[in-house]
Amino acid sequence: MEFMLDTLNFKEIKKWAAILPLAGVTSNPSIVKKEGPIDFFEQAKKIRDIIGKEPSFHAQVVAADVDEIIKDAHKLRDELGGNLYVKIPVSKAGLTAIKELKKEGFRITATAIYTVFQGLLAIEAGADYLAPYYNRMENLNTDSKEVIAQLAQAIQKKGSSTKILAASFKNVGQVTKALAAGAQSVTVGPDVFEAGFANPSIQKAVDDFAADWKETQGRDCI
Questions:
Q1: Among 65, 4, 69, which residue's Cα sits nearest to residue 31?
Q2: What is the mean pLDDT of residues 194-201?
Q3: How far is CA 108 from the centre of its chain?
Q4: Residues involved in catalysis
């Protein structure tokens, strides 16, 4: 399974890149906005310096019509290169652009997926990743686990190389449910990763082990 970080914040990326088995960093225009008045491309290049060449970087187009989506994709590849996945929402225009860009050898993350139907179409269009929005689907009274499970089944049945990169999480429970339902990858905000280590029992166990070692061995470390 793959764990990705859903942020463009330098401090958080440096912190979690040192902790996690980090497979990549994802972004979208709303995440860019959270960082204030930044130059996106300069920020992305500096993030690449932090995470290294192997982890993937997922950057989203902003255009709404086919020709402009394709232009956005070329701009992203020209500026960022490397292990880049272009994020494209699965709309009618987006799906058309995905088909064209795959012919050109682009790696694509099909995003803004709310339904099984969208995901099935993106699989057939050749998307490398599908990004279903877990929490947003729940807010719309959609069974997020069932959507992911059906997409995972379709991928397996087809023998497709497409992976499910589940996104939009508000808590750790949602992340583990998405993985259990068949997602191969998740992209998670720093706050959710932080919450995953907030259980006081974890630190108590660490403290107890340290105290027991010191009591029996007379020193703090091995």
A1: 4
A2: 86
A3: 13
A4: 87
Q: Which amino acid is at 59?
A: A
Q: How far apart are CA 4 and CA 51, in angstroms?
A: 11
Among 142, 140, 149, residue whose Cα is nearest residue 119: 149
Quote the pTM value.
0.93
Q: Measured between alpha carbons, how far is residue 1 from residues 73, 77, 180, 184 in Å?
A: 27, 26, 11, 5
pLDDT 10s digits, 54-110: 999 999 999 999 999 999 999 999 999 889 999 999 999 999 999 999 999 999 999
For the chain, the domains span 2-191
Name the architecture of domain 2-191: Alpha-Beta Barrel (3.20)
Q: Quick one: how far is CA 60 from the chain centroid?
A: 12
Mean pLDDT of the chain: 95
Q: Measured between alpha carbons, how far is 107 from 158 in angstroms, rounded to an integer?
A: 19
Q: Please give the pLDDT value at position 119.
A: 98
- The whole-angstrom separation of Cα 5 and Cα 47 is 11
Q: Tell me how far apart the alpha carbons of residues 10 and 34 are, in angstroms, rounded to a whole number.
A: 12
Question: Chain-centre distance of CA 21, in angstroms?
Answer: 13
CA 118-121-124 angle, to 5 degrees, is: 150
Mean pLDDT of 141-147: 98
**In angstroms, what CA-CA distances link 207 with 48, 56, 203, 219?**
36, 36, 6, 14
Cβ count within 10 A of residue 199:
11
